Amino acid sequence: MQQIYLLATVGALAALAIVVHAQTTPLFPVACELNVLIVLDRSDSVKGGFNKSRKFVTDVSEELQIGPEKHRVAMIVYSGLSYRREVFPWNFAKSNEEFVQKTNALRAIGGTTNTKKALEVGLELMAQRNVSIPTLVMVVTDGRSADDPKGPGKLLQAQPNTWVFAAATGDPESVDTRELMDITGNINHIVMHRGRDLATDITRRLLREAQDKCRTTTTTTTTTTTTTTTNPITGCELDLVLVLDFSTTTDPVYNSYKDLSKRLVSQLKIGPHYTQVAAVTFATVGRTRVRFNLKKYTTQEEVLRGIDKLQSKGGTTAIGAGIEKALTQIDESEGARPGIATKVMIVFTDGWSNKGPDPEKRAKDAVNAGFEMYTVAYTARAPNSVTLNNETLSAISGSSGHAFTDVTFQSLVDKIKQRNLPCMP
Ligand SMILES: *[C@@H]1O[C@H](CO)[C@@H](O)[C@H](O)[C@H]1NC(C)=O
Ligand SMILES: *[C@@H]1O[C@H](CO)[C@@H](O)[C@H](O)[C@H]1NC(C)=O
Ligand SMILES: *[C@@H]1O[C@H](CO)[C@@H](O)[C@H](O)[C@H]1NC(C)=O
């Protein structure tokens, strides 16, 4: 009698667990650490189709923090059975930059599409993943495989703690939705162009939402488990380091760097739970200074006043030394919030450097230290911009789309502001 009762209870609990699970399973895995397995169809069936898929993958990767500690990526690039398949094991890319670089080096190979075989290779990679963290499998194909991917698709879906998605970057009319359904087992896990939304935008939004939730999840666990933490994490933390070229005493140039900095700061939410700002100025090597560190000011007014007070004394130009000095701002003693805040460094310069350490190498150090790097140049003085050293500017900013001018500055502000937006009224 008692046994039957117990069984009934267990049964009820199991049913409850299933219901709860179904209700709380998010569309995308919510976790600060993720395995991301990309299965990329390179059989350029539509002209230029592979380039589109490749761009999808690199664009979406911007929402990840690729590295052995956060988002660990593996990738399979495939077409037909008799064509070379490229298998990139877990953690093949240690940073977003490395991922983009390796992905951009891939080329289309014609032939058939053998997604079944690719997914089988995927299952082998899955066996090597870190099972203690959730996994997102993203199959990028328009379908129309020569072999039926249903079998390995089912096995992938059945992996614990795993979400299988498919993304089609081609014309929605020519996509084989039924096959994508076989791969994912869930209609909501298929991303395609819808109306004017690109598959990229949809995926980015999903990923961003999941990552935002992961931040709030961390908050609750942090506040409940750490008794010393009195400051809740808001998810809007940003450590912003402004690096200003003060080698020129010419007013329009260095004052424009100050004005642009102020324009940025006045559009952000400043404070110990939001954006903290540090300023570094550089000129001659020995005259590179942290003018104020991340923890010096706690209000917007103070930061604006701090920027106002900056003065140029002129000298030679040592961009590398400026970036090197800015790297001191990864230290907690300077006010940095490692693991919590997004790190952004903006270098205001025309790109000409004639002294000190190699700017490109120092910029790489900064990227390795977790900084998103941007450059801002002032063009108004010379409308044709021949006075800019674009080569150095793009070497410092690294990823394309990270080099700005006074003319395009607002789009940089908008980009950086994203981090604070959830906390702004
Ligand atoms: C695809 O990209 C490669 C370089 O990344 C380029 O050489 C090629 O012309 C592009 N193909 C198409 C069809 O746009
Ligand atoms: C798996 O990930 C967890 C969480 O980051 C980590 O603590 C653990 O060391 C990892 N295991 C292996 C084998 O890498
Ligand atoms: C340098 O970049 C600026 C801004 O992107 C552009 O307007 C200018 O034409 C470029 N100059 C050269 C010499 O390529």
Verbal overview:
It comes from Caenorhabditis remanei (Caenorhabditis vulgaris). Residues 35-210, 239-421 form the VWFA domain. By secondary structure, the protein is α/β, with parallel strands linked by helices. It folds into two domains: 34-213, von Willebrand factor, type A domain (Rossmann fold, 3-Layer(aba) Sandwich); 238-423, Rossmann fold, CATH 3.40.50. Helix content is 38%, strand content 16%. The protein contains 13 helices and twelve strands. The protein has helices spanning 2-24, 49-61, 96-104, 115-127, 150-157, 177-184, 199-225, 251-265, 300-308, 319-326, 359-368, 390-397, 409-417; strands at residues 34-41, 71-78, 86-88, 135-140, 162-167, 190-191, 238-245, 275-282, 289-292, 342-348, 371-377, 403-405. The chain has a six-stranded mixed beta sheet, with helices on both faces. Strand 8 and strand 9 (289-292) form a beta hairpin. The longest helix is centred in the middle third of the chain and has 27 residues, at 199-225. The radius of gyration is 25 Å and the shape is elongated. One 2-acetamido-2-deoxy-beta-D-glucopyranose (NAG) is lined by residues 33, 130, 132-133. Residues 47-48, 51 line the site of one 2-acetamido-2-deoxy-beta-D-glucopyranose.
Specify the number of helices: 13
Question: What is the share of helical residues?
Answer: 25-40%
Q: In the residues, how many domains can be counted? A: 2
Q: Widest sheet: strand order?
A: 3-2-1-4-5-6
Characterize the main sheet.
6 strands, mixed
Strand content range: 15-25%
Proper CATH architecture of the largest domain: 3-Layer(aba) Sandwich
State the secondary-structure class: alpha/beta
**CATH superfamily assignment of the largest domain?**
von Willebrand factor, type A domain
CATH class of the largest domain: Alpha Beta
Kindly report how far apart the N and C termini lie: 60 Å
InterPro entries: Collagen-VI/PIF, VWF_A, vWFA_dom_sf
Organism: Caenorhabditis remanei
Protein name: VWFA domain-containing protein
Pfam families: VWA
